[in-house]
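Illustration 12: DUF2007 domain-containing protein.
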Amino acid sequence: MQRIYEPENLMEGELLQCMLASEGIEAHLQGRDLLGGAGELPLFGLLGLTVENDQAQQALELIAAYNAAQPLPFEEPDSFTGVLVC
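Figure caption equivalent — predicted structure in token form:
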């Protein structure tokens, strides 16, 4: 197993874990149970995505593509000016 990425937060870690699973890569999110110790433990380096050694390169490429992605252009409808549409 290799630790390939340190997500900024639990939400990003779970998103990446699911993205990798959709590509057939089993990833483990280490440290999720340690987040409750914030204040007692250091803030950085608690979370880490790990994958099997033979899948590490493919996982790194997918995460790099995720980090390089740009939002799609979006035209805001006139009836929702200034309102976040999800």
